[in-house]
Amino acid sequence: METEAEVSPEYQTVYSAVKTLSGSNSQLKKLLHFKVYKRRWFVLLVLCLLNCSNATLWLTFAPVADQSAQYLQVSLEDINWLSLVCMVVAVPLSLGTTWMLDTLGLRITLILGSWLNMFGALLRFCGTPQTEPAIMRYPIVMFGQTLAALAQPLIIFAPTKMAALWFPDHQRATANTIASMSNPLGILLANIISPMIAQTSRQIPSLLLCYAIPACIICFLATVGIRSSTPPTPPSASAEASSTEPFVKGLKLLMKNRAYLILLLCFGAGMAVFSSFSTLLEQIMCVQGYTNDFAGICGALFIVFGILGAGVLGLYVDKTKHFIEVTKINLSLTALACIAFSVVSLLREQKAAIATVCSLFGFFGYAIYPVAMELSVECSYPVGEATSAGLLFISGQVQSVLYIILLQSLTTRLADPPWSTCGNAVLSWRVPLMVLAGLFSLFTCIFVLFFHTRYKRLEAEEEATYGTKPGSGSTTTEHSLSINT
After folding, report:
1. What does the alpha-carbon distance between residue 292 and residue 465 come to, in Å, rounded to a whole number?
2. Is the dihedral of CA 310, 316, 322, 325 positive or negative?
3. For residues 464 and 448, what is the distance between their CA atoms, to the nearest angstrom?
4. What is the mean pLDDT of residues 459-474?
5. Residues 170 and 264 both lie in one domain
6. Which runs of consecutive H residues, i.e. helices, occur in 171-203?
7. What is the pTM of this model?
C-alpha cells in the first residue's frame, strides 16, 4: 500500500504549486493529475464485508424463527424483536452517526462499527451453548443483537462518504453501488445459510458460530488494514477542495434546500415501500395458497435482480452523470411494478407472473438506492456526504414503520379458504396493496414533476479544476483527469 513517501517528488511539487493557487490560473490547474491508490479497493472490500456481515447478524433468526424460539424458549414475537431491535436502535443513533462520519472521519467510524459487530456476534454465540438456566439465553442473545444494531448505522451510512473520499469522480457511483448492495447480499445469504445450518433447534449454536467467525476476521482486517480516513492525496477536485459545512449548519442548509426535501420525502417513501414488501411478502402470498418456499424464492429474486440492476445503473451513471433522469425513469418503472404486484399477488396459480413482477420490482427499485444517495450529495453540496445520505436513511426507516402499521391496520379477516397456507388468521390484503401502490405512485409523480437541481458537486469540481464556472464552455463530464492506477 502507498504512503505519503511513495508519492513522487515531481507530483508533490505540482500538487503543492496548484494547491496554493487562488483559482486565477486555469492553465496551470490543468497540470494537476489526481492520483488514486490501489488501497481504495481494500477499503471498499472491508466496507462491503462489514455491510454483508452486519446484515446476516440482523436477519439470523427470521428464516429459522421456530427453531430459534424453541432453543431460546421464547415466543415467536420475542424472536421478531431480535430483528426489530436494529430498527429501534438505528433511528435515534442516526444523527450521531452522520456527525461522527463527517467530523471524526471514516477510519474511526468503520473500526468502531467492526468491533461492535464482532462483539455482538461473539456474545450471541458464547452466551448460548452452556448458558443455564436456558431462560437466560434470550437476554444474552438480545444484548448481542443490540451491539450489532449499534454497529448498523456506522456501517450503512459509510458508502457515500467512502466513495467521495477514496474514488475519482468517474468511479464514485460504482463504488457506492458495490458498497450499498452488499447489505441486501447479506440479507440473501442469511436467508440461505440460516435454514441450511439450523434445521433443528440444537443447531442454533452452530449457526451463531458460523456468523461470528467472519465478523472476527472482518474486524481484524478493518483494524489493521484501514490506516487513514483519506488517501495521501485527494482523488478528485471536490475531495481536494472539500469545504463541507459543520454538522449543525449542514442540517440547517438541508432543511432550506427544496430539492433535497423533495428527495427526502419521495425516496424515503420508496424505501418504506420496499421494507413493507420484504416484511409482508409471505403473509400476502399465503392467502392465495402460495407456499413459504415460493415466497422465499420471490424474495430472493427481488434481491438478486436488485443487485444486478444496481450494478448496471451504477456503471451507467458513472459514465453519463445523468442522476436525475435515471432516478425519475426508474422510480416510474418501479411504481408500475408495484401496481402490477398489487394485482397479480391477489391471483391464484400465477407463479410465473408473480416471480417476474418481483424480479422487475427489485431490478428497477433497488437500482435507485445508490444513485439517489449520490444525487443527495449533488443537490446538497457542500453539506457533508454522511449527513445528506444519512437523513435519507432516517426518512426511510421512519416511513417504513408508519407504512407497516398503516397496512396492517387496513387488513380484514377472511373466512379460511381451503387453499390458504397461512398458519394463523387469514387476512385480506386487497385494500392495503391498493393503498401501497397508490402512495408510491403519488410520491413518484411528485418527484418527477417537482424535483429539479443543479449538480453542485460536479460544478464545484469543474470550477476547481479548470477555474471556470458552469456554462463557460466546458461540460461537467469534461473534467475527468488522468488517473494513475
Report:
1. 56
2. negative
3. 31
4. 60
5. no
6. 172-197
7. 0.73
